[in-house]
């Protein structure tokens, strides 16, 4: 039974005749309903972008559907950061090593670290030498050492940009977009509970200068009326909301375990594929942020297909239960790396900072 389970996807992992990718497309709805208002993330201004919602091309309030636009609801990076921590949960925890880094009074799981195995927190811990060696091996086409320490870095992508420059693309990518959005604005006003000028905290003249002036200290500290008009009021997705997720089997086939004299490459690919398949099919969190909670659209079935290099698209019936079952067998065969609890080391960090000036 174990042999048949672990061999079932070998033709996908070894042959270019297999699928290039697995793709999931889910149609989503705001919890308020199809015409509900949702709040996208806001981004800082820069590189010609004025700041605010990321809408391409910028939407106007005058019949925006006549000029199709696309609004980012959750980025690829944000989606990865939502999915990756599931591997700390009981049901999935034994699929990967548990790596904790103690920094002062904080215990940080490597699954919560923004740059994964390439993060400064990891680089400046007791893992420094092992991680450096693992990245050097990666440059020599051997991903096995990194898989023993931080396998999700192989799944969600990693770049050791401050040291070896070793870089791996994401195998699993997910993003949520809204289409043909109508951008809304909202207004509000803060009214202080008492008249502080009447209490002689400051003068009536100071009050008059401060009201409506967001830069005034009295307004900033909440002592006077402070209106806020024309601020971000969310969007209505006239063209629907969609999550597009993929697992690149073509990229997975680039992973190797060195010279592979004893078939370790297949064992490695099975293990990483199992973790990636679990991540791809996991039920994603519906709560993204205040004002943005999404659920599956019951009127539009999800699409799950295997996409081949010649463009063929074949339906896939792999469930999350199937994915987890395979991942457990593949993890046992690979031999999950040891759990480790290590210390962040201040001196390593100080030395690392000095490298910037060298």
Provide a descriptive summary of the structure in words:
29% of the residues lie in helices and 26% in strands. The chain is an alpha+beta fold and 358 residues long. The protein has two domains: 2-95 and 165-179 and 238-357, no CATH class; 184-235, no CATH class. Strands 1, 3, 4, 9, 12, 13, 14, 15 and 16 form a nine-stranded antiparallel β-sheet that branches. Strands 2-11-10 form a three-stranded antiparallel β-sheet, with no helix packed on it. A three-stranded mixed β-sheet has the order 6-5-17, with no helix packed on it. The longest helix is centred in the last third of the chain and has 18 residues, at 264-281.
Beta-strand residue fraction: 25-35%
Number of helices: 13
- Biggest sheet statistics: 9 strands, antiparallel
Low-confidence stretches: none
Overall spatial form: globular
């Amino acid at each position: 039974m174990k042999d048949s389970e672990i061999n079932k996807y070998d033709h996908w992992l070894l042959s270019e005749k297999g699928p290039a990718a697995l793709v999931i497309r889910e149609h989503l709805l705001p919890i308020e309903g199809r015409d509900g208002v949702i709040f996208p993330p806001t981004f800082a201004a820069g590189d010609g972008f004025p700041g605010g919602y990321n809408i391409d091309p910028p939407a106007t309030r005058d019949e925006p559907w006549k000029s199709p636009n696309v609004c980012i609801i959750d980025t690829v990076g944000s989606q990865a950061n939502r999915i990756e921590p599931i591997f700390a949960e009981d049901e999935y925890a034994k699929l990967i090593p548990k790596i904790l880094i103690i920094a002062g009074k904080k215990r940080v799981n490597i699954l919560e670290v923004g740059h994964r195995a390439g993060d400064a927190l990891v680089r400046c811990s007791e893992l420094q030498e092992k991680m450096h060696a693992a990245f050097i091996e990666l440059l020599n086409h051997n991903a096995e050492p990194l898989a023993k320490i931080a396998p999700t870095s192989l799944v969600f992508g990693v770049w050791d940009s401050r040291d070896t420059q070793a870089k791996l693309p994401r195998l699993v990518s997910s993003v949520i977009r809204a289409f043909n959005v109508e951008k809304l604005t909202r207004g509000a006003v803060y009214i202080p509970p008492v008249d502080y000028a009447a209490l002689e905290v400051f003068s009536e003249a100071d009050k008059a200068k401060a009201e409506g002036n967001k830069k005034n200290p009295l307004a900033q500290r909440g002592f006077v009326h402070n209106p806020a008009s024309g601020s971000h009021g969310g969007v209505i997705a006239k063209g629907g909301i969609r999550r597009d997720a993929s697992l690149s089997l073509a990229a997975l086939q680039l992973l190797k375990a060195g010279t592979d004299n004893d078939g370790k490459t297949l064992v490695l690919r099975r293990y990483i594929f199992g973790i990636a398949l679990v991540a791809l099919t996991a039920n994603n969190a519906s709560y993204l942020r205040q004002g943005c909670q999404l659920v599956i659209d019951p009127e539009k079935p999800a699409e799950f297909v295997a996409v081949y290099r010649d463009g063929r698209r074949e339906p896939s019936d792999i469930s999350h239960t199937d994915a987890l079952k395979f991942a457990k067998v593949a993890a046992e065969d690979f031999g999950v790396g040891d759990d480790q609890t290590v210390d962040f080391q201040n001196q390593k960090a100080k030395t690392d900072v000095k490298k910037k000036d060298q």
